[in-house]
Amino acid sequence: MEQRTLRVTGRLGLHARAAANLVRIASQFHSTITLQRLDNSVEADAKSILSILMLAASRGTELRVTAEGEDAPGALNAVLGLFARDFDEPEVAKHQPRDAIKEEIRCKGLGVSAGVAMGRVLRLQDGTRDVYRAEIDGSDVERERRRFRAAVRLSRRQLEAIKERAEKELGRGHAYIFDAHLLFLEDAKLTRDVEQYIVEKRANAEWAAKVVGDRLLSIYMQINDEYLRERGSDIEDVIQRLLANLTGEGRSQPRLTEDAVIVAQDLLPSTIAELDLNHVRAIATDAGGWTSHMAIIARGLGLTAVVGLRDFYHRTRTGDQLIVDAQRGEVILNPSAASIQRYEFTSQSSSPPLPSQSSERGPVVTEDGVSIALRANIELPTEFESVKRYGACGVGLFRSEFLLSRPGLLLSEDEQFKAYRALAEMAGPDGAVVRLFDLGGETGYELSERPERNPALGLRAIRFGLKNVSVMRAQVRAILRAASFGPLRIVIPMVSDVADVMRAKQIIAEEWNTLETEVSSKPGIGAMIEIPSAVLTADKIASEVDFFELGTNDLVQYTLAVDRGNDAVSDWFRTLHPAVLFGINRSLEIARDHNIPAIVCGEMASTPAYVVLLAGMGAVDLSMTPAAIPRVRSTLAQINTVEASELARQCLECATADEVEGLVRDGFARRWPNLFSPQTLPAEPTTN
Ligand code: PEP
Ligand code: MG
Fold first, then answer.
1. Taking burial as the number of CB atoms within 10 A of a residue's CB, which of 224, 366, 474, 621 is the most buried?
2. Burial label, 257 (beta-carbon count in 10 A; 0-12, 13-18, 19+)
3. pLDDT digits over 294-344, tens only?
4. Cα of 441 to ligand 1 centre, how many Å?
């Protein structure tokens, strides 16, 4: 055995190109060669690039090099020589660290969740629906391993071709990174682990590659050295290539570092549900609008978010520095020193104060004595705590589809039962309304084999349940069983008319009859009123349900035929359009006539100015993002519903959204100047 200690002297430490050269030299010897950090004993195999990079050996790190085997002396000399020659790096590469050539780039979008935040880009690729987990038979294990090896071979051929072209066009100094990619691809740490995962977990090759890749990436993202950590994006590239070659597309799902800013083309709820959002500083996406689910969740969690950035994603690399400024609806990639200084000033002076605990709870009473229930909309269990914190009257909407973290992976009845039981116990005597899975559409959980041409008008919500009855039955059973632990109600999403309601009720009744456990009272059944056909036939629906739940987000989308997640048409997404107000008013009236409650639960119910109009139309039950409750409470406590209904009446007579907004802007500012600053009212139309 031969051993020596040395110190890393290169300015960029033991980075990807240096590591690639080390692997090449080390692989010429039979001996095992290890590098061990003297400060923390972390050890690496000198023949594995992934292992070397994970040493995170920056300049100044002391290493012990050990060679063991028949040619150990020669091996040790060769390695020491390479360190002494500064890894044989070409001059051009030595003097061009990537940071030096990065320019500040600014992009405009739509700030959907307040705040200003700075951090490091973590790119999430939008390929979720193509990476699925499949259980395979023992007899198929070999086939999956062969598929994986074929994908590695194909990726290698692609990378060699790219490298050749880069060498010709850019010169050897710039093509080196593809050497590193090739070594990642063939590194036993990746290939052996993927094959082992396939065998041990009986998993399909895509899934195994994704899990192992994510693991590597998450370790990499925790490296302290900035330059080395940035190389995580190279590993990400290789994994994505492999997945693409296996499935057509793929994406990685790393665990998050402290300062991650998620950048994605579109962030699907399934992705959000999987992330540890405690570590996320902000979100920036190419797509999205005010009521897209990503925006709703970001607001719920108090995460700064800017959406609608068009082609921003392609301009970023994992590890880049980024400022997300939701106040200005802007992101700044690779900010200059001056921008960083401005950011530090802005974030200290104008970040919204964190929503504090609310001492008030239960319903709010308006000036003229009308009692209005304030409930919470909940997507993730991490939000449970906020129900108590903000004094909500239980949960008015539990978006149960967020329990499903991955397409194709439905939770078992028992797993769901545990989740609904926890919800029931947490919600207390005010209870919780569980919405049956609203799968499909924008939520990206579609379990169908083929992508739909027009998902928002496709097999979404209750339509999905009625076509996948076993999925629906398992969910219904889980809710019914959990109802022994606290008052739960069931709401049926996106019903077209009373026929959808009858079919769903039939299934619920059948499951109720098969229940063996004692449930003291049968959960009430409600219908979401969120598409125009349901509004127009609301009287028929009202006779068959225990309550209405008005989904104003979808009601705007479907009444106005405006995709709620498409920033290109966000100018047409007008919550205060008279047609939308008409739908809300009519549904509330019909609920009153039939003596059933109506909960208004879309984003409209989180916005103080809109809430006054809702109260003016007679709404007495609202459900919203928990953090909005204190604001809505204080607004409603100071208004008089008689005056609000006069304003609502005038709005209902308007012809356009502009007219309604004008009335609200002027009327509210005149009547309640202390309650509404200009920023909290609809903006003046801009003249071009
Ligand atoms: C709505 O449509 O307003 C609603 C509450 O449901 P979601 O936003 O989940 O579609
Ligand atoms: Mg909806």
1. 621
2. buried
3. 788 788 778 899 998 888 988 888 778 899 999 888 999 999 888 888 887
4. 12
Q: What tokens does 601 get?
A: 């639960």
**SS (HEC) of 140-154:** HHHHHHHHHHHHHHH
Burial class for 455, CB neighbours closer than 10 Å (0-12, 13-18, 19+):
middle
200-220 pLDDT tens trace: 988 888 888 888 887 887 777
Q: Which helix (H) or strand (E) holds 104?
A: none
Confirm or reject: Cβ of 557 under 6 Å from ligand 1. no
Cα 97 from chain centre = 32
Give me ligand 1 centre to Cα 399, in Å. Answer: 9
Residue 209 corresponds to which tokens in the numbers above? Answer: 């590659």
Which residue puts its alpha carbon closest to atom 10 of ligand 1? 554
Residues 250-302: tens digit of each pLDDT: 434 444 566 788 898 877 655 665 566 667 889 999 888 888 777 887 887 78
Q: Global pTM?
A: 0.65
Quick: pLDDT tens for 3-53: 999 888 877 778 777 888 888 889 999 999 999 999 888 899 999 888 888
Three-state SS at 86: helix
377 CA: nearest ligand 1 atom: 5
Q: How far apart are CA 276 and CA 302, in angstroms?
A: 14
Question: Which of 375, 378, 528, 564 has most ligand 1 atoms within 8 Å of its beta carbon, as the pocket-test mutant?
Answer: 528
* Confidence (pLDDT) at 128: 40
Q: How confident is the model at residue 226 (pLDDT cuts 50, 70, 90)?
A: low
User: How far is the C-alpha of 336 from the C-alpha of 103, rounded, in Å?
Assistant: 8
Q: How far apart are CA 160 and CA 146, in angstroms?
A: 21
Please state, in angstroms and as integers, the Cα–Cα distance from residue 366 to each residue in 43, 390, 612, following that order.
67, 18, 10
Do 49 and 20 touch, CB atoms closer than 8 A?
A: yes
pLDDT exceeds 80 at position 98: no
> What tokens were used for 200?
């041990």
Measured in angstroms, how far is the CA atom of residue 532 from the centroid of ligand 1?
14
Q: Which residue has the higher pLDDT, 317 or 462?
A: 462
Ligand 1 pocket mutation, candidates 601, 603, 614, criterion most atoms within 8 A of CB: 601
Is residue 61 within 8 A of residue 37, CB to CB? The reply is yes
Nearest-10 crossing angle of helices 188-201, 172-186: 30
Respond yes or no: is residue 293 known to be catalytic. yes
DSSP string, 534-563: HHHTHHHHHTT-SEEEE-HHHHHHHHHT--
Dihedrals phi, psi of 406, to nearest 5 degrees: -140, 140
Active-site hit among 181, 293, 577, 651: 293
Ligand 1 pocket member 551 (CB < 6 A): yes
Q: Is residue 115 a contact partner of residue 278, using CB atoms and an 8 Å limit?
A: no
| Tokens at 163, concatenated | 């490298």
Tokens of 234: 């190279």
